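hiii so my PI (J.) wants the whole complex modelled not just the main chain, which honestly fair. so below is everything: two entries, each one labled with what it is. i double checked the lines twice but i was tired so who knows lol
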Amino acid sequence: MNQVWNIFRKDFRHHWREIAASLALMVGFSWVQIREWTQQYRMAYGAASAAYEILSGLVVPLVPIAWMFLIVRAVQGESLVGDRQFWVSRPYDWKKLLAAKALFVLVFVTVPLFITDFFLVAMAGFRPWTYIVGLLWLQLIWVLLLLLPTAALATVTASIGQILLALLFIVLYAIGMAALSDAIPNSSFAAGNAGLYFLLIVATVLAVILLQYSRRKTAQSRWLIAALAAAITLIMVATPYRALIMHKYPLAGSGSLPLQLAPMPSHAPAPDDAMYAGNQVPIVLPFSLSGLPKDSFAELDGVILTLTNSQGGSWDSGWEQRGTELFPDQKTFSIDLNLRRDEFDRMKSSPVNARLLLAFTLYQDRQQRPFTVPRGEFAMPGLGLCSAGTRPWNSIGSLNCRVPLRSPNFLLISSEVAKGTCPLPKDAPPINPDEIARGYVRNSDPGPAEVGISPVKIVTVYLSDSPNSRISPGICPGTPLILSHPEETGHTRIELQLDNVSLADYQRSLRPAKSE
Amino acid sequence: MTSAIQTDNLVKKFRRVDALQGLTLNVPPGAVYALVGPNGAGKTTAIKILMNIFRATSGRAEMLGMDSFLIKGRQFESIGYVSENQELPEWMPAGLFLSYLRSFYPAWDRSLENELVKQFDLPLDRKLRHLSRGMRMKAALAGSLAYHPKLIMLDEPFTGLDPLVRDELIQGLLDRAEESTIFVSSHDLGEIESFASHVGYLEEGKLRFSEELASLVERFREVEVTFAVPPPLPQQVPENWMQLSTAAAVIRFTDCRFDAERTSADIRRVLGEAKNVSFAPMSLRSIFLAMAKSGRGTA
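here's the output for the full assembly
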């Protein structure tokens, strides 16, 4: 313990400036956060405001950068790379050295972060002890996602220059992987490997740190990191995405279709109205919708379109991700896809057979609760502390909330447009009495806290009656809302076949379609 | 423990470079052993293998009876190590450097530390990066002597130092020589000669010889043979004659296995009757120069 303490004291003495800067940034970050909550509805102009905006924008990325810098400096203080360091011939116990560095990170990064988070949760109007598990989880997430990887990189580099070079490699690798992901059909929709990648990264990072501290095998450690990059690339390339999607979304039998979809007629736009997006041609496939039981709804997660024509030509979009909710009161919806212009021209020359696969997640929405929006700040059940749209520049109100640690998995907010209390524009179209507007808050993060520097999330909810979308009613004091937490009931796949259609009929028009 | 340091057929390869080619070495306890040789001979590699900084490709090395491969952590409490290219924590003032090291050594002797600080005239409040090279070496040495190490390993400690500093460092070492075994690598032969008890010569990763300095100096002589008339150069000379040269009626050579009677007899047998024969003792520097130039290491 004596050795741990001595190394820790030495590091503190060496890096006190970096520590002070990191702590000052955390204080600055807290101040910016609190100011944003309290000032968020006020407009400010002028140079002072602009300067504040710049500084507040800078402080958020600077906080993790300061942590990374501090960790790199501390680890490289007893560099594990090379054979000239004075300490390698001294009676250092590697476990104690590692413990000293861990203590340093704990005392000067993790504990201040915890205190800052605790303070921010309290300042946001919540009881921090209620969220202690989430607060601890947030520390763990930071340790696993940033602090440990940074420490691992620091163990295989000898200087700030080397670690910047390593970071550059990582950025280039990430860009390359993003490009590769775009190039691999179906991969964007089936993002099922994230957990595996996370486990591989954490395992490799821990292995590198232990290997370096126990044996200083830098070459082996670097190879380990390179192997991780290769493994992730290999998994990304070799994953049978289409099969996984088919498995996750079983084909619905004709007798058990959760909803009825029927293609709607469409007409080719006039040549001058035909829309092109660069070398892409947007097409729109409209459908009528029925059969969704009350208290349930479906979310269109993904879509794949296969076209074949009589001349033997074919085209496949690959699975594309969507996130469109379909509710029982909704009568129509459309699917947008893009074809390359040359493919479009090739396929439109003769009638095509279109095969459309739609992947849905089904939800039940039973436990609905009425809630009338009060004036001022109020506690919104299942969400946080909110206030209704009082932005003076926006006649359409929104719900602005501070949410402790994480947003709910799925909070659906519905409102009958006719009962809205927000002032409407003078040219607003007449409101249909059955029209329902909806907004939602969603979060796919399974943990008790979302990743982020601040433990308090700012959530803004807008209501929309899309796809009817003639008007977006606001949320204002007095607006009656229906709140619910929909529960997922299953996944399914629906297959639609459109035979002998003219692809040109579905090209998007520059003119908005007339309301039916 | 019969040896403070022992290596057995130590081999180290760096990719295609054979840094050590079967180094077998034995340093008795209490010796001041100087491992000398030209740059790139493998001296630093040998020391780093002994200190478990490098791993040997094959062979075995021991220090103080411990397998070098296993030397780590607390085993360094009895070993001091100073190297010319060691990276010290340069941000530390010399005083902080010593006090920081103090906490690692149970046997740290505060009075010895003070003595060394005084002897080396160390400015305790100045950061190591602001010290001259000589002062940094002194600080490193003070930090490696103050805990009474049983073994002191020095890798080229005198390189680039002015003579005064070198003398101070050597004196500092000699003052501690009775309680420690000292192993020093150097190509600065003048200094080695003044305090080494044993010497080994490493060349191209091979140990050409290893013996007590006194016996080495004793067996090398510069021989000058003067004749009445210039003699013909002999076709064959004894193996132990190195750097044979002739100028008018004088023949000079270095005898690396000098024995007055035998050398005189060999001269008579090979060169004939001479007018005068003189044997001059050689400095360590002259011995190594002769060996390096002749390329005949196995003297």
